Amino acid sequence: MQVFVRDNNVDQALRALKKKMQREGIFREMKARKAYEKPSERKTREKAEAVRRARKLARKQAIREGLIAAPKRPARDARGGGRGARPAAVSTLPRQGS
Hints:
Distance between the termini: 66 Å
Oligomer: single chain
Mean pLDDT: 85
Strand content: under 5%
């Protein structure tokens, strides 16, 4: 695996490396190899993962065919909220009328 460092920006290169390693499943494999896993436990885990994948695939297929409704997305606020949005500014002016 290879990541290039551009303009001496090591932080950006490190983020890119971590993203690649995450995509390849290296972190999951390192965690799995930390301790011995009995063959029976491995089979059980792999079967559970296969069932999860099959259910996810079937759910996506059913949504595509219109058999079930797609999950609703969370409503975004009128200011264009979402990830990384800043909170609305708090007014420091005194209240009028009270």
